[in-house]
């Protein structure tokens, strides 16, 4: 399942990938305020019995990186962890109908790779959640696997952990952006080339592949400095990419499109220019980076129609969601020269990668013509970099996933504000 990246950055948050810096609040909440009414009643005028701890449903693997925090978390809450068999969708549905885990108050998913065995959180699952659930805190930045609108309408705050992944994803995006300017796949593959093809356009020896790349890559390579970097999405990750590649570092000119314009002081600090429409951004950019968790209407953002708005020869990078890109249309754009290069970390049908893009990534053909954007028998070499959804994958990211998910639950169940909510606009009235 793909994982996009873009969480609105809370005011004053440092531009870092780990969870917020302030000291962790007291981990022993006043449990009585979020228990069902029948558990808060007293009998015969006597003092009420000690309130039960709120139940947190922990889906997925055990905690790996924050045992001390988790020990305190487990003291504050009764943590219930369904087995792998219970997380299979039919059994998970059965368990919810049976109220097998009681009237739990939160759902906790600290790892992106596990805890999603029940599949998409749609109406079938959400309608079965007890009314006591107040917060769903998950690892990862993406949330297209959960109907956050429906969760909000049920009174459940969904919190992602994009803040924890921001630095790792931004670093990876920098490498991919540089790749589109410097054709790194060609340079790397030519150095280790082993001839296996009878294609006349394929170099016959590793030495020839090396020499061909050394001689010809220059004609299609450029410095990023002075080029316009267009960011679709300007949350944590978009802002960090801008900080790393703008002035004074790489000297790129930063432009962005987002559903909500950022404060002027933030734009000024990053020398970023806002574009009110996606079409405007695409027309102005030399390299476009997709860094948003979802499109406003749930449909792909990069299609044949939007690709028509790109400048000819533009570069494209996706570190967001594979589902946001029509990959066949993208392959067409690379084939006809609309795009000069692309780098994709996420894919529409993971773990399967689009066959046409794979073929382009493997190609060792003569370089693209400056006028046609094509080589002797197709797109030029080194035009496509493909990776395996690796952008956010660092130990530091996963430390942050765990910590931030726990902090979100602690904040909400103590009656405070969530740290990284994504669906507050959908919360039912009175929440």
UniProtKB/TrEMBL annotation:
<dbReference type="GO" id="GO:0005829">
    <property type="term" value="C:cytosol"/>
</dbReference>
<dbReference type="InterPro" id="IPR029753">
    <property type="entry name" value="D-isomer_DH_CS"/>
</dbReference>
<feature type="domain" description="D-isomer specific 2-hydroxyacid dehydrogenase catalytic">
    <location>
        <begin position="121"/>
        <end position="423"/>
    </location>
</feature>
<dbReference type="InterPro" id="IPR050223">
    <property type="entry name" value="D-isomer_2-hydroxyacid_DH"/>
</dbReference>
<dbReference type="GO" id="GO:0016618">
    <property type="term" value="F:hydroxypyruvate reductase [NAD(P)H] activity"/>
</dbReference>
<comment type="similarity">
    <text>Belongs to the D-isomer specific 2-hydroxyacid dehydrogenase family.</text>
</comment>
<dbReference type="GO" id="GO:0030267">
    <property type="term" value="F:glyoxylate reductase (NADPH) activity"/>
</dbReference>
<dbReference type="InterPro" id="IPR006140">
    <property type="entry name" value="D-isomer_DH_NAD-bd"/>
</dbReference>
<dbReference type="InterPro" id="IPR006139">
    <property type="entry name" value="D-isomer_2_OHA_DH_cat_dom"/>
</dbReference>
<keyword id="KW-0560">Oxidoreductase</keyword>
<protein>
    <submittedName>
        <fullName>D-isomer specific 2-hydroxyacid dehydrogenase</fullName>
    </submittedName>
</protein>
<feature type="region of interest" description="Disordered">
    <location>
        <begin position="1"/>
        <end position="22"/>
    </location>
</feature>
<dbReference type="InterPro" id="IPR036291">
    <property type="entry name" value="NAD(P)-bd_dom_sf"/>
</dbReference>
<dbReference type="GO" id="GO:0051287">
    <property type="term" value="F:NAD binding"/>
</dbReference>
<dbReference type="Pfam" id="PF00389">
    <property type="entry name" value="2-Hacid_dh"/>
</dbReference>
<feature type="domain" description="D-isomer specific 2-hydroxyacid dehydrogenase NAD-binding">
    <location>
        <begin position="214"/>
        <end position="367"/>
    </location>
</feature>
<dbReference type="Pfam" id="PF02826">
    <property type="entry name" value="2-Hacid_dh_C"/>
</dbReference>
């Amino acid at each position: 399942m793909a994982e996009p990246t873009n969480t609105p950055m809370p005011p004053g948050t440092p531009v870092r990938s780990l969870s917020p810096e302030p000291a962790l609040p007291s981990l022993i909440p006043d449990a009585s305020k979020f228990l069902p009414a029948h558990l808060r009643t007293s009998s015969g005028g006597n003092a009420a019995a000690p309130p039960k701890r709120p139940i947190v449903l922990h889906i997925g693997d055990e905690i790996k990186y924050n045992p001390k925090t988790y020990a305190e978390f487990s003291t504050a809450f009764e943590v219930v962890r369904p087995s792998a068999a219970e997380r299979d969708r039919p059994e998970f549905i059965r368990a919810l109908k049976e109220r097998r885990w009681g009237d739990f108050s939160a759902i906790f998913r600290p790892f992106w790779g596990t805890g999603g065995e029940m599949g998409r959180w749609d109406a079938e699952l959400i309608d079965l959640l007890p009314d006591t659930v107040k917060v769903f805190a998950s690892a990862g930045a993406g949330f297209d696997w959960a109907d956050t609108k429906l969760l909000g309408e049920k009174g459940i705050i969904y919190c992602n952990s994009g803040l924890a992944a921001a630095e790792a994803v931004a670093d990876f995006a920098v490498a991919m952006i540089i790749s589109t300017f410097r054709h790194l796949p060609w340079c790397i593959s030519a150095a280790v080339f082993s001839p296996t093809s009878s294609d006349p356009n394929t170099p016959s020896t590793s030495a020839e592949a090396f020499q061909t790349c050394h001689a010809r890559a220059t004609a299609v390579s450029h410095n990023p400095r002075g080029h316009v970097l267009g960011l679709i999405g300007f949350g944590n990750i978009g802002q960090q990419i801008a900080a790393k590649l703008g002035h004074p570092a790489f000297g790129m000119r930063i432009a962005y499109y987002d559903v909500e314009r950022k404060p002027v002081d933030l734009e000024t600090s990053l020398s970023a220019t806002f574009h009110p429409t996606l079409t405007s951004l695409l027309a102005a950019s030399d390299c476009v980076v997709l860094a948003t968790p979802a499109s406003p209407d749930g449909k792909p953002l990069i299609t044949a129609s939007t690709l028509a708005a790109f400048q000819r020869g533009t570069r494209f990078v996706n570190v967001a969601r594979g589902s946001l890109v029509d990959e066949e249309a993208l392959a067409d754009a690379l084939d006809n020269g609309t795009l000069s290069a692309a780098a994709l970390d996420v894919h529409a049908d993971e773990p399967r990668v689009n066959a046409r893009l794979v073929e382009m990534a493997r190609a060792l053909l003569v370089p693209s013509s400056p006028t046609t954007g094509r080589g002797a028998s197709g797109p030029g070499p080194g035009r496509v970099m493909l990776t395996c959804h690796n952008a956010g994958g660092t130990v530091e990211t996963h430390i942050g996933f765990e910590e931030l998910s726990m902090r979100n639950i602690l904040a909400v169940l103590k009656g405070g504000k969530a740290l990284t909510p994504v669906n507050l606009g959908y919360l039912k009235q009175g929440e």
